[in-house]
Structure formats: structure tokens, C-alpha cells
Amino acid sequence: MPLSISRRIDAAVTRAIRGGQGGDAPAKLSSALHYATTPGGARIRPTICVSVALACGDDRPALTDAAATALELVHCASLVHDDMPCFDDADLRRGKPSVHRAYSEPLALLTGDSLIVMAFDTLARAAPEDPLRAVELIRILAARTGMPQGICAGQGWESEARIDLAAYHRAKTGALFIAATQMGAVAAGQEAEPWQELGARIGEAFQVADDLRDALLDAEALGKPCGQDDLHGRPNAVAELGVDGAVGRLTDTLGGAIASIPSCPGEASLAALVRRYAERLTPLTHTAQAVH
Questions:
Q1: Cα three-residue angle 11-136-278, rounded to 5 degrees
Q2: Tens-digit pLDDT profile for residues 211-226
Q3: C-alpha–C-alpha distance, residues 8 and 11, integer Å
Q4: CB 134 within 8 Å of CB 92
Q5: Are 50 and 110 in contact (CB under 8 A)?
Q6: DSSP string, 168-179
Q7: pLDDT 10s digits, 156-187
Q8: What is the DSSP string of 129-153?
Q9: Is 243 within 8 Å of 211 (Cβ atoms)?
Q10: Phi first, then psi: what are they for 96, rounded to 5°?
Q11: Could you give the CA distance from residue 268 to residue 65 in angstroms, rounded to a whole number?
Q12: Contact 70, 102 (CB under 8 A)
């Protein structure tokens, strides 16, 4: 991630978290908010959001920062909830104890809920920058967080007897990547619709990559429990396509993502960004081939 974008995102997320810790806030929940969002990991979704906005002109940077922050807060909330005993019952996240292990299940639930509310509050506070754009940002994030095609729907698919793998991936992982590309465009004054395919393809690639990691790597390499798909009987690309098939889909999807970038002043820089992410995922194909 370019250092300037990284610092920009970290500063914006830090401001939002500090805003949620003021006044007479309960100390443990305040601490859990910070714990759940740091260290920030790769911050892939907000980086894509800011990168799209920059490619489209970024004429309202405060609105872009709010969009990127809101995305990251919802993503972090989803990780907190995913790790809880009612879902994955994971002890680790990003190499440290998951929030429910560090703070308790009730505080983990409240942490995730608080981060989601904070995300929408962040967008609302930025609305004076451009009210119409802000309303559209709120609408997009709501659609990609809830039902019928948001990350809540993605989690809900895991309770179905028969699962549509493509719909499951679009909702569980693709939703926030679609939000990232669309919100970056809208923050910069562009239409959302042309940016959906790019987000969907990037999201699919990262979900397939995650399925390969879960199947092929160990907990130390992942920074979280491995083998979760098999353990919980979840649908995944490796189970459906085999290792070779999953690697092939990953490669094809990343190529399609680059081809789907809409025409914009920063089109070349966006293509370079997607290629960098593709290069980061390339070791997975080597691992897969060695194991297989």
C-alpha cells in the first residue's frame, strides 16, 4: 500500500475510534474498540476505496476518508462477530487473541455492534461535504452490510442446507469489495454502477485465495485458526473445484478484474494496484501446486 494512503487511512480510522471513546464511555468496551481495529492488517478494502477515489479525482477528500473509514469499521466488526463461538469459535485473529477471548463474549458482541453504528455515524458526520454523495455512500454500505446481498446474507448462507457457492462468495466476501469500489467512485462524484464488476471480481479472487489459505496453510502462517471450512462444513472453492481448479479460478478472476476497470483518469494506477494484489496472491498458487 502506498505510504501516503496507509497513513491517511490509519489517521481517519484512529479519529473515528477516538470519537467513540469519549465522554463517560465504559472503559472495557472503549478498549475493545481499539483492540478490534489494531493492528490494521492490510486495510485492503479502504485502500481500494481511496485508490478508486484518487483515480476519479478525489475532489472531496474528507468524504473519501469517511467512506474508507466506514468500510474498515464494518469489516472489523464482521471479523469480531465471525470469531465468536456461535460462528467460527476462533481463538486468534491477526496473530493475537480474538476479541471474545480477550474481553468476553458480551463485550465482543457489543464491540461489533458499536463498530457498525460508528461506521454509519462517520458517514453522516461527513455529509456536509456533499449531502447527496453522503446519502448514496450510506445506501451502498447498508446494502453491502445487510440483506439480501450483504455480509449478513453471506453469514446467513452458512445456515442453509443447500448453498449457492457463487452467491455465498458474492455476499460474504464480495459485498465489501463492491462497496469499496463503488464508494470510492461516489465519494469522488462518479456513478456507482460501472464500478460493481471490479469490486465483485476482486472480492471473488480474495475469497478463493482465502479458501486456499484455509486449506493449505497453518495457523502460524495465517495468524488465525486454519482448516475452518472443513471443520464447520462450509462451502469453499477448494472443496467444490479441487486445488487446481481453485488456483485456475483465482488466476482467471484477477485477470478479469483488471479488464473490468472503468475508464477514468487514474485507470493505469488502478490496474497496477490490482496487479500488486495479484502478485501477493501468487505464492498461494506455488504452495497449492507443491502440496497437490
A1: 60
A2: 888 788 766 665 666 6
A3: 5
A4: no
A5: no
A6: HHIIIIIHHHHH
A7: 998 999 988 888 889 999 999 999 999 999 99
A8: G-HHHHHHHHHHHHHHHSTTTSHHH
A9: no
A10: -140, 165
A11: 22
A12: no
DSSP string covering 183-251, please? HHHHHTT--SGGGHHHHHHHHHHHHHHHHHHHHHS-HHHHTS-S-HHHHHT---HHHHHHHHHHHHHHH
Q: Measuring CA to CA, which residue among 83, 11, 266, 48 is closest to residue 178?
A: 48
With cell 460474504, the residue in question is: 172
Residue type, 89: D
Strands (E), the chain: 92-93, 96-97
Length of the chain: 292
CA–CA separation, 261 and 274 (whole Å): 10
In the structure grid, which three cell numbers stand for residue 186, read together?
461516489
Q: To the nearest whole percent, how much of the chain has pLDDT over 90?
A: 67
* Better-scored residue on pLDDT, 48 or 229: 48
Residue corresponding to grid cell 463492491: 178
Among residues of the chain, what percentage have pLDDT more than 70? 88
C-alpha cell at 66: 469517511
Q: Which three cell numbers stand for residue 22?
A: 469519549
> Considering only CA atoms, which of 174, 195, 198, 187 is closest in space to residue 54?
187
- Specify the DSSP class assigned to residue 262: P
